[in-house]
Amino acid sequence: MSVGGFGSGGGEVASDRADTFSYTPARRLRPNAKVLPEHARGHNRALVLQTLFASGAMSRADIARATGLTRVSISDLVASLIADNLIVEIGLRETSRPGKPATLIDINRDEFQIVGLDLSDTELFRGAVLTLDGDIVTLREVPLDGSTGEQAIDKAVALAAGLLEEATVEVLGIGVGSPGVVDMTGTVRSAPNLGWTDVDLQGALEQVAQVPVLVANDANAAVLAEYSFGGADGDLMLVSVGNGVGAGLLVGGHPLFGSRFAAGEIGHVVVGTDGGPLCACGKRGCLEAWLAVPHLRELLDAVDAAGLPAEEVVLRQDEILRAAGERLGISLAAIVGALNLSEIVVSGPEELLGGVLLAAAIDTVRERTMTEFHGGVQIRMSEQGSDIVLRGTAVMVLSGLLGVS
After folding, report:
1. pTM surpassing 0.85?
2. pLDDT value at residue 15
3. How far apart are CA 393 and CA 176, in angstroms?
4. Which DSSP string do the residues of 174-222 spell out, in sequence order?
C-alpha cells in the first residue's frame, strides 16, 4: 500500500498534523494540563488525543471535563482533528436517561499503523507493523549472518521498506530501537557489535520512506513500552538484559538521555572492588560481565554438565544467579538513591532473571538504601515479553508525532 500523511521526517506538511512534538527530553511524554495561549493549539490537540488514547471513546463534554478546556475549545479542536482523520465519531452513547444521547468520539485507531524495528539482537533484526495500541499485525525477522557496517544498514533499510509495503492502512511513522549510543538526530554514535560509528540511521531510512522516522537506543524504546502498556508511572527505570545490559530512564515523565546521549549505559560500569569476570571491554567486574544472558547460560550449563547430584546442581546454580543478582542490586542501589525512583523493571528471559536473581537484587537494594526514603521502590520483571522494544518504537512514533503515550 502507499504511505503518506506527514511527508518525510524533515519535510513540510500543509496541515495541523505538522504540529509534531519530537521525542526529546524537553517535553513530558504526556500533556497533562492546558498551557499559555502562545503554545496552546498544538499542546491542546495533544491533550485531547492523550485523553482519548488513555480512556477510549468519550463525548465532547467528557473531554472538556477531563482536560479543563472549554466546550467551545473542545468543539474547535475536535473539528480540526476529525478533518485531519486523527479522530472519528463512532456513534451515540447508550443511555436510559431522557434527552438526546451524546455522540462518542475516539482516536481513529483503525486507519493508521506504525512500522517498528528492533535492531538489538546480535543474530537478527526484527521488525513489525503495529497498531496504535502497540499490537503486532505483521512480524518479520532478518538474519544478520555476521553483517556489520553498510551491510547491516542495508538490511535494516530493506526490512523497513518491506514492512511499509505490508501495512494495510496509512503508516503514521517508523520507530527504531538500535543498540549503542543514539543522539537526538537519529544518528547512532556508536554500536560496536554492528560496526557502526556516527551512522545516520534516520537519514538512511528516510530515503526509502515518505513518513517520519524516529531512532532511539533500544532500552530507551523499551522503557516507553513499559510506561504506556505496562502500567508504570513517570519515575521509572527499565533494565534490559540480553547479550548486553542497558537501561532506559523516565524521570517526572521525561525521557532522560544525558549530556552525551549515554544515560542508562550501565553495562560497562564496574560493580564492586573485588574484580570479577573479564568483560569484552577489557575491564573486570562490569555489570554486563556478571549479568549478560550468554554468560549466565554458560555458567549454568557448565554446572549441568558436571555430573553432580541434582540437589547440588540446584544449589550451585542458585549461587550463580544470586551472585549476579547481588551485582545488579549494587548498581541499582546507587541509582535509586540518586533519583529516588518509584519503580525499576527488569526485561529479559524470566527463567534466568526472575526468581533467585531478582530476589537477590531486591534484597541488595533494600540493604544499601534508606528505608525511610527508598523502601517503597518496586522492583519487578516486565510482562511485555520479547516484543518490548517493538512496542516501544510504536510509543516513540505516537509521542513524537501526536504527543501521546
Report:
1. yes
2. 37
3. 6
4. EEEEESSEE-TTSEEEEEGGGTEEEEEHHHHHHTT-SS-EEEEEHHHHH
Q: Give CA–CA dist 1/165, Å, rounded.
A: 5
What residue type is assigned to position 44 of the chain?
N
For the chain, the average pLDDT equals: 89
DSSP category for residue 284:
B
User: The cell 547440588 sits on which residue?
Assistant: 312
Q: One-letter amino acid identity for 340?
A: N
**CA dist 33 → 53, 67, 68, 179, 258 (Å):** 15, 7, 8, 34, 26
**Per-residue pLDDT tens digits for 225-276:** 999 998 887 789 999 999 899 999 998 888 888 888 889 899 999 998 888 8
CB-CB neighbours of 231 under 10 Å: 9
Tell me the three cell numbers of residue 347.
Answer: 526485561
pLDDT, position 94: 77
Across 6-118, the runs of DSSP E, i.e. the strands, are: 58-59, 87-92, 103-107, 112-118
Q: Tell me the Cα Rg of the chain.
A: 23
Which among 346, 242, 344 is positioned nearest to 296, based on CA atoms? 242
